[in-house]
């Protein structure tokens, strides 16, 4: 393997039995790819909300502290006892992190499929991507056009397939329009572009006026700002206009999911409808796919009995999607990578720069609009 | 129509625009049955939790007040502004009440199916049963054995079909055991008997030691008392023993639904399982079919992403059940009316006796074990 070092670095996350979280740079031996594998030089990997659970392990980030050396920084923090109870299965294991990324194939196993990727730019979904190199099975790789910029190829899977999965789920469950929360996120902007392209009515819920302005600039028709006093009335009006009976919620705590169900019910039931204590018979559904708000979900029931709230995740969605549909979805991502599925990063940093107290705190705030891209080759 | 009076009495519930609830005895003209109808002399009708929404309209029962005359009492109470907002569609209408009941067919329309029921004892589901007479389409009637006692035939539909519907739903959605809350209710006792007969593992959740004792006496294997300090651990153990991944919840407010989901997840994930921040991939479901606790539903998420909470009602269940299955379920109820589907009433009262402040307050408390049977012919 010419030009491939014998060892490389990766970010690991360890939770000790005493509740201490330790983030460190670990040196590992660069593996030789097996027959059906390729070795990818990782050029870029995003820090997604879905990475932070494994990375931070629910630690109290006010307790973040730096130690170690300049070239091998160690970051520690304390995991509160409540969160620690959920970490039993990972205690004592220094876990590799990073769900997805992209790079160039610098070595390939013996199989024809692997050899065909040699020298190509690929995106990879599969964990252990906060690393300078990653051996990956061919089927984990999505071929990108030669010369795709690292920042363009880094987020090919999680946000794009999640956004597409929402629209696919909407169709397969018989809904005709969508509500989306945290709608100014990279994912939300993608979903807005997909819905505009596909003619799917979309109600965007945001938390700040500048987020509403951003989405309006991008052509969004319905934007409801939960910081506005008229939020609930605006939401009912937007849901009535679109006929949305399905929402995807990244917030997953507090009253928002219940407010959406109540707004759907209010939009469905005409003011002069005959009284029914059981509410409308139109099924209203909220899928929670994130946990930006760690508080309990609080449902104030004024939405009758035809309702559901449930978890939604990308992986089970992909598992129940046919091979043919998966090829179609992945190909659309590759084809529209710099348009529909464009991502924006506020900072591009090395693995070393990521192990910094201030950077990690900004990262963990999950403020919509702030997004970090790791560049492991820097 | 020999022996049928020209007019009869029924209980009506009126909400005025000023928020006053008024319960009264209304005189109405006894109808002549149409061709496909029968006229039923109502001998018994239960006051179910599902009747109380229409009857009480969310009124504050501390404000109950009696007026009117001895033979025509009027009961009033104040509907709080919050509840009144949901009552817009029924304002100003004095609505007949009472979902189900039984009695004898005293007149029949011209059709052969109607004539065949003349003189027979039938159970009826269809509203307006807190009345001395009720005209009902033949298809609303379930034929009962001649001489069935009014107390035995009064509750043929709502509790029996709800309990059977839970087991049918369990099977059709691929679950193999059940959790049930408010499990010492008439409905809960029925469900326990069905599950024992059909070999379905059942976890009964109750709120008091004497309720646990009652269910144990009736052969229940798993009973968890939420008033016990070890409740959450008991629940995990019972769910692990049974493999239950589906719960039916009559409480519908507070933390119970979330506790059940968390217990299911804890029962599913072995202590030495590899760490996953997304939780198990086993779907865990709670269906809320009641609202004994009016507080918001509060879900504290430690149950991963494979979960759902949703509304469940008898009517939509019946609507999606095939005609063949409905005949099977109704026939089982008729066949096992005094065994599996036996109901118990603490009080049997006339329509006049029901319009009493103390009686209505006891009734509205929905204390498990207390249940009223209206006897309109008294």
N-end to C-end Cα span of chain A: 21 Å
Oligomer: homodimer
Main pleated sheet of chain A: 7 strands, mixed
- Average residue-wise pLDDT of chain A: 94
Tell me the greatest interface: A-B, 45 and 45 residues
How many E strands of chain A?
A: 19
- Strand fraction of chain A equals 25-35%
What's the tally of helices of chain A? 13
Shape call of chain A: globular
Helical residue percent band of chain A: 25-40%
Low-pLDDT sequence parts of chain A:
none
Structural classification of chain A: alpha/beta
Radius of gyration of chain A, Cα only, in angstroms? 22 Å
Notes on the structure:
- Two copies of one chain form a homodimer.
- The first copy, chain A, is 30% helix and 28% strand.
- In chain A, the strands form three sheets. In chain A, strands 3, 7, 8, 9, 10, 18 and 19 form a seven-stranded mixed beta sheet that branches. Chain A has a six-stranded parallel beta sheet with strand order 13-12-11-14-15-17, with helices on both faces.
- In chain A, α5 packs across α6 and α8 packs across α9.
- Chain A is globular and about 75 Å long.
- The first copy, chain A, has 378 residues and is an alpha/beta fold.
- In chain A, a hairpin with a 4-residue loop joins β4 and β5.
- At the A-B interface, β16 and β17 of A face β16 and β17 of B.
- β17 of chain A pairs antiparallel with β17 of chain B, so a sheet runs across the interface.
